[in-house]
Every structure is written in C-alpha cells, then in structure tokens.
Automatic annotation (TrEMBL), chain A:
UniProt entry tagged with the keyword Transmembrane: no
GO cellular component: blood microparticle; haptoglobin-hemoglobin complex; hemoglobin complex
Gene3D superfamilies the record matches: Globins (1.10.490.10)
Gene Ontology BP term (one): hydrogen peroxide catabolic process
Organism this protein belongs to: Dromaius novaehollandiae
Protein's recorded name: HBPI protein
Signal peptide residue numbers: none
InterPro entries listed in its UniProt record: Globin (IPR000971), Globin-like_sf (IPR009050), Globin/Proto (IPR012292), Hemoglobin_a-typ (IPR002338), Hemoglobin_oxygen_transport (IPR050056), Hemoglobin_pi (IPR002339)
Gene coding for it: Hbpi
Molecular function terms from GO: haptoglobin binding; heme binding; iron ion binding; organic acid binding; oxygen binding; oxygen carrier activity; peroxidase activity
Automatic annotation (TrEMBL), chain B:
Family: Belongs to the globin family.
Pfam families: Globin
Keywords tagged on the record: Heme, Iron, Metal-binding, Oxygen transport, Transport
Organism: Dromaius novaehollandiae
GO BP terms in the entry: hydrogen peroxide catabolic process
Recorded GO CC terms: blood microparticle; haptoglobin-hemoglobin complex; hemoglobin complex
Gene3D superfamilies xref list: Globins
Domain Globin span(s) in chain numbering: 2-142
GO molecular function: haptoglobin binding; heme binding; iron ion binding; organic acid binding; oxygen binding; oxygen carrier activity; peroxidase activity
Binding site for heme b: H46, K62, H88
Name of the featured protein: Hemoglobin subunit alpha-A
C-alpha cells in the first residue's frame, strides 16, 4: 500500500506533536497492549511489566524511536527499518497479528492525547502508516 | 512481501502441473470456501450456491484464470491484476480477511489433487504467492 502526499503530511504533522512525548506514549501503548491483549506478554518473560516499570519505559522509547525513524524516512520506510526487519524475522519472530494490536494501542494513546487533531482523515493516515511499518517488519519472515 | 526466485519457480511449476484443471479447482475452491467459512456467502446473495451450481463453476473459472494470469506475470503481479485490484477496491470491497480463507481453500484443493506436489517448500512458496495476489487485490482499498 502506498501513502498519498496528504497522508504523509498528516503523519509528519502529528509526529511533530507526538515526538516530545514519545517516551511516555511508547510506555503507555505497551501498557495498553499488555492489559487489553495479555497474550502479548508472552514475548516479554524477562520484563517487569508492572505500571511505570523502567523496562517498559525503556522499551516504549525504543518502539516510538523506530516509528520516528520511519516518519523521518517516510518515503523509504523499508530502507530505514531494514535492520529492525531482520531482527524481527530472524530473532524476535513476533507473530504478525501482534503488530495490528500494537498499532491499535499506539493509535489509542495518540488519540487520547490529541483528541481534536485526530480527525478521521488523520486517523486513517496513521493507521495506513503503521500498517506499512508492520508490513516492513514482517517482510523477511519468509 | 517479496517472492524469491525459488518461490517463483515453485509457483510456476505448480500452475504448470495444474494446468488444464485450473478451472475445476477454482470451482472446488469456492465450494470449500462456502462450506467451511459460511460467512463468505455474504458476497454472493445473487448466486445459487448449491453443489454443482453453474454460477459457482463459472465464477471458479474466473478466479482460477486470475491466479493463472498472476502466475504467468509473477514478476509484476500488480500490473497484471491492476483492473481486478480496482474492481475489488471500488466495487466488490471483499473484506481482506477473506483472501486468506480463499487462499487456504485453494491450497487444500491442490494438496488433495496433487499430494506429492505440495512439499513443505512448494507449499510455502504457493502460500506466499497467494498472499502476494491478495495484497495486490487489496492495495487500492484505501
């Protein structure tokens, strides 16, 4: 799927607002993921998943930073996330269905913090963008 | 997702072996789809879906022809199926999840009729091919 110019613009605009709070949003998204979809905890047996845990915050940061990279390189997400794509394919092997769940949680966190900016068009643009990111991260699985 | 050279070879050889039976496999695939996943009948309120129905046979032919077309143009499936992609996006709007189900049924039909053909590697290649076709057909949805 390809993002239109308008969609890329919407993603970039919202990201400018999200970026300063990226760490908090990342941690919150993961928290939402683990609460709403407890089966996702299976990938983190080595983590302290309690609210506010340092590991959660650290990992949330990593996730949102990767998304930030994808935003910065929105015309070549595949190139920007090539290493992460290999990591997920050869080592992490997170079941593809979980990317949808995490994307959903990220959308919820962003929407909760920026309600008036999260118009239907912006929502659609972000959903497409996160779908693209998910596709890239699962591309090398087989 | 990207089809490797091996994937393409495997897919082409499957379709070469299936060759003349493609149409009847198309019909059988649809019949299995409607039986195993009755919710898919929702897209065919105007069809007689009984066993042996002429409409299902005709539609199975169409579906099979499209798959053969894709296999014959495996290096550029999006161009080969561009019109079908438009049709699905603008008119049919089949929920993307159903493409997986149809692909599944097609694999089962091939397995039944050509058990020795579907080695694990060929199975994986064919499944990837069917996913690639599904991606093309849903690419223009939004």
């Amino acid at each position: 799927m390809t993002l239109t110019q308008a969609e890329k613009a919407a993603v970039v605009t919202i990201w400018a607002k999200v970026a300063p709070q990226a760490d908090a949003i990342g941690a919150e998204s993961l928290e939402r993921l683990f609460s709403s979809y407890p089966q996702t905890k299976t990938y983190f047996p080595h983590f302290d998943l309690s609210q506010g845990s340092a590991q959660l915050r650290g990992h949330g940061s990593k996730v949102l930073n990767a998304i930030g990279e994808a935003v910065k390189n929105i015309d070549d997400i595949r190139g920007a996330l090539a290493k992460l794509s290999e990591l997920h394919a050869y080592i992490l092997r997170v079941d593809p269905v979980n990317f949808k769940l995490l994307s959903h949680c990220i959308l919820c966190s962003v929407a909760a913090r920026y309600p008036s900016e999260f118009t239907p068009e912006v929502h659609a643009a972000w959903d497409k963008f996160l779908s693209s990111v998910s596709s890239v991260l699962t591309e090398k699985y087989r | 997702m990207v089809l490797s050279a091996a994937d393409k070879t495997n897919t082409k050889s499957v379709f070469a072996k299936i060759g003349p039976h493609a149409e009847e496999y198309g019909a059988e695939t649809l019949e299995r789809l409607f039986t195993t996943y009755p919710q898919t009948k929702t897209y065919f309120p105007h069809f007689d879906l009984h066993h042996g129905s002429a409409q299902v046979k005709a539609h199975g032919k169409k579906v099979a022809a499209a798959l053969v077309e894709a296999a014959n143009h495996i290096d550029d499936i999006s161009t080969a199926l561009s019109k079908l992609s438009d049709l699905h996006a603008q008119k049919l709007r089949v929920d993307p999840v159903n493409f997986k189900l149809l692909g599944q049924c097609f694999l089962v039909v091939v397995a039944i009729h050509h058990p020795s053909l579907l080695t694990p590697e060929v199975h994986a290649s064919l499944d990837k091919f069917l996913c690639a076709v599904a991606n093309v057909l849903t690419a223009k949805y939004r």
